[in-house]
Each structure stands twice: as C-alpha cells, then as structure tokens.
Amino acid sequence: MIIFRMKLLIAIIILGIFLYIAYLVKNKILEFQFRIEKEKFPVLKILSNVAYISIAIIGGLTSLNIIGVDITTLIVGIGICGFAVGFALKDVISNISAGIMIILYSPFRVGEHIKVSGYEGKVIEINLRYTVLEREGSKVLVPNATMFKNIITVSKV
Fold this sequence. Notes:
Blueprint: H1 2-30, H2 41-67, H3 72-88, H4 90-105, E1 113-116, E2 119-126, E3 130-135, E4 138-143, H5 144-149, E5 152-155
Antiparallel strand pairs: 1-2, 1-5, 2-3, 3-4
Helix pairs in contact: 1-2
C-alpha cells in the first residue's frame, strides 16, 4: 500500500510538472501576438491550445503509466477515436486548415474585391471557417476549402 501511495504521489508531481510546462509553452507561443498581424492571431491561439493539450495529454499518460495502468490500449483507443472524429469532421477540418493557410499566406485581404467559383464581392471578414463576401447589400459565406482549391481573382475596386 505504501508503494502505491508513493507511485501516486510521483504521478501527481509528474502531472503537475507537465501541466506547468504546458502552461509555459502556451504563454510563450501567445507572446508572439505582439509581433504578428492582428488577422493572424486566431492561428496563434489554435497553435497554443494544441501545444497545451498535447503536453497535458502526454503528462496524463505518463502519470497513468507510473501508477501502473497499461496505457497501450488507451493509446490505441485514442488513435481509433481520433481517426473516427477526423473522418466525421473532414469538411470542417478541411475548412479550418484552409482558413489557417489563407490567414498565414494572405492571398487577399479584408477590403479587397475577389472573385472565386462564381462568387464575387468585397471581402469583409476572413475567419477560420469562412471568407465572408459582401455584394449589393448581401453577404456570401464561402467555405475556406473552396477558396483554397479554386482560382481567385483579386482586384482593388
């Protein structure tokens, strides 16, 4: 019983260290917000959250392993669940990935007039899921995957 308590104490300490490291890494990544353009901040937030969650999960799995839990099946289960969720959300993930690329590479900016896949208008917003165009008082939400896969004509009208 004393050995289990020692292992549990070590596991809690290890988890705490991993969570602290995750917190530090997240804050270090977020420090770049002062060096980048305001439009690119959502990408930085996603990156910091992914880093935090990844480090926290590694810490949790390490702690469970120290206690004596066989994490092999847990890791396989997480992998299978990740595959299933990724397959189910492939369109959403595709749009978010394309949104990140559009925000990073800036092929067009807010205020410019673009034409893509039969849609055209003034860009009023670029978010992770959609690019919002405005034309004649109406808004068109074009999925970022469409923006990323098709030819875009950019003009400064």
